[in-house]
Amino acid sequence: MKDQPKYSIKVLKREKPLRVSKEVKEVLKGAVSGKMMKNMKYESVLCPVIKEEVPFLECFACESFMRRFKGEVHCAGLKGSK
Fold first, then answer.
1. Which among 47, 52, 61, 64 has a CA at the least distance from the CA of 11?
2. DSSP E strand boundaries for the chain
3. Which end of the chain is more exposed for a tag (fewer CB within 10 A), N or C?
4. Mean pLDDT of 28-34
């Protein structure tokens, strides 16, 4: 089935936000409200493709991102977010 995710990853809460590039912020500016973007800066995921912890906003902008459901991210596993 085409819509089946290859990976299911937990979203992690952080006390301090990870740095997000300006390009990612610009891409998401129209899709996500400012308040929601501020909250997402304090979340991260352990990317199974690049084997690193990345900010959730970078994961959200990645082409492998499928959906976020109940604190988990479903990933197609095509490419990493970097």
1. 47
2. 7-10, 12-13, 43-47, 52-55, 65-69, 72-75
3. N
4. 88
Q: What domain range is 47 assigned to?
A: 7-75
For the segment 35-68, what is each residue's pLDDT rounded down to a tens digit? 999 999 999 999 999 999 999 999 999 989 999 9
State how many domains the chain has.
1
Q: What is d(CA 65, CA 60) in angstroms, rounded to the nearest whole number?
A: 6
Q: Is residue 80 part of a domain?
A: no
13 bridge partner residues: 43
Q: Give the pLDDT band (50/70/90) at residue 82.
A: low
Question: What is this structure's pTM?
Answer: 0.85
- Whether 32 is covered by a domain: the verdict is yes
